[in-house]
Amino acid sequence: MYYYHVAPSRPFMDTLTYESEELIPIGCRVEIPIGKSKGFGFVVEQQKVKPVDFETRKIIKVNGEHSFFNKENLNFYKWVSEYYHYPLGETLSLIIPSFIPKRKKTFEDVEKTYVSQDDPLVDFTEEQKEAERIILDPHTQNTYSSRNLLHGVTGSGKTEVYIEIAKETIKNKRGVIIIVPEIALTPQLINRISAHFKGEISVIHSEISRAKKYETWIKLSGGKSLLCIGARSAIFSPMPDIGLIVVDEEQDSSYKQDDRLRYNARDLALVLGKQYDARVILSSATPSVETYHNAKEKKYSYVTLRNRVRGLCLPKTIIVDLKKADMVSENFSTEMVKNIKNALDKKEQIILYLNRRGYSNTIICKACGTRVSCPRCSITLTEHKNKKIMLCHYCGFERDIPNYCSACKSHSLYPVGSGTEKIYEEIETLFPEARIARMDSDSIKGKKSLGDILKKIADKKVDIIVGTQLLGKGHDFPEVTMVGIINADVTLHLPDFRSAEKTFHQVMQVSGRAGRMCQGLVVLQSYIPEHFAIQNAIKNDYDGFYSEELTNRKEVLYPPFVNLVDIKFSSNSKDISFKSAKLAHEAIQKIIKAKKMNVITLGPTPSPIPVINNRYRHHIVLKGKSRSDLNSLLKIFNQEYKKHKSLRLSIDVDPYSFI
């Protein structure tokens, strides 16, 4: 008889012990009895002797022919579970494919990844050659624990540099993981990479089928594929030996999972790199403040590309102060319209950017001031005129656009604020002959939809592209010469300590789409153009922005000067949510005092959006310079705190935002 520790797919922090007459490898998925029901779990350890203090129950059966991970992979997954304080079994269930085909699959005939013999010659600039040399230099990598920040202006050829490093890694028979912030970028990157590699190239993201994900996972775990490209979940690829991990656009918020297992793939890349002694490249035109700070503190090798390839200059910028501007329509100044017309006359393409989807922010009654709000959340509904609905972007509630005010019955309803749908309508009126396309999450559903739009843009069947932040995420539009930023202030007004950083990043990233093949132009509209985030973005002055932002964060103690934890409470009862948070705060204070921990607590307070989907939300924020103190505090808290049965409690380690 064999005895096994199994991590069940249930909210248990500990493993359970079972017996079986079969010899079962680590990493196999098994069906097990749990209480009076059945469930699934993963074998994480074999126990050599029979437990003496309790009777073990039998494993019902092994699911599938393959093991999903080895001991090295498991060490990483355990670290993830412990760091983010999420049960190991549930962590594994989220990471690993749940679908197992009934028919036995064999992968012996799969061609292993290799560098193509027809690999195209890459004509590097001197800067790119130097960047490659630094990242491949063993002495430099030893000094910085193989951690690199590749900081290059938009269009400087960062992708080509890390492709060359990937080629060297695969020639040495070691695995490569490349992650990008959006699924939408994966096909574009695969197209660029496929010229350099043959054999099995794996792709992992949420839109691939369950059967394909299973196949991909088994090929990776068996060492058949040495190259994996994907969105954030690709960081969990079960490769036997990893030599390089690339995080493209490392500053992007999409790398942070915002529910259940709240991991950050960028941070996990550094942990995984250390485990496998692999090179890690964090690549960005606008690094996060924390990453840049680590480079400044000599924790990472700092590699720069200051110039665009082909010797092109960064785009020229014109600023329009919306407080004083002469407006042609609600959202378009005379200056903006004039430059759009000039670009259209020259048959050039234009991007119009506004980081807000929908038609209007909401609808307001002019008679009494009532706004159309979500009945389940403490926010207003967004008008989507094309679909003839009002939509909540948090809980998904929708209703028809009202004809009269629910409070005073007045018909004096008026849309306030603008989204991409309204921008599209205005530009269609101003330039009726122009061919216009939208790129936002409302207009793009799935890879095919995005592929169709990108092809139309590439074939010059589109003159003006209207979109949200999706436009700024690494897309290459060679024929775009002008970028119009409709309102640069949208993210500045968020109740978020990263609001200035997000604004700086977005302005820099979307501006970088202009003039990839010739001199570009950016027309930026703002009500507060004097704000340091906007001023430094238009000057392409990262150091200027970083210096001021760092001073601001030091004054109020935010990262990189402290580590954060956000403990979230929600219940369908406001009283239970608040009282639970209050009791938790008292328990945390006792632990801090007893263990003499240097941890600051903020709260409990209502969350910035106090109600979502009829659940009242409160939170407690922890600030601490010592990650060890925070980790110990959370472990004790998890063991001692008994939550109310109607309460949902979640722990967000290193939160990206409190919203």
- Count of alpha/pi helices: 17
* General form: globular
Largest sheet: 7 strands, parallel
CATH level 3 topology of the largest domain: Rossmann fold
Radius of gyration, taken over Cα atoms and rounded to an integer in Å: 26 Å
Going across the major beta sheet, what is the strand order?
11-12-9-13-14-8-15
Q: What is the annotated CATH architecture of the largest domain?
A: 3-Layer(aba) Sandwich
Tally of separate domains: 4
Low-pLDDT runs of 5+ residues are none
How would you characterize the overall build of this protein?
- By secondary structure, the chain is of the alpha/beta class.
- The protein folds into four domains: 2-95, PriA, 3(prime) DNA-binding domain (GIY-YIG endonuclease, 3-Layer(aba) Sandwich), CATH 3.40.1440.60; 114-309, Rossmann fold (3-Layer(aba) Sandwich); 312-358 and 418-553, Rossmann fold; 563-653, Ribosomal protein S10 (Alpha-Beta Plaits, 2-Layer Sandwich), CATH 3.30.70.600.
- It contains 17 helices and 30 strands.
- The strands form seven sheets. The chain has a seven-stranded parallel beta sheet with strand order 11-12-9-13-14-8-15, with helices on both faces.
- α13 packs parallel to α14, α14 packs antiparallel against α15 (542-556) and α16 (574-595) packs across α17 (627-640).
- The model has no long low-confidence stretch (mean pLDDT 93).
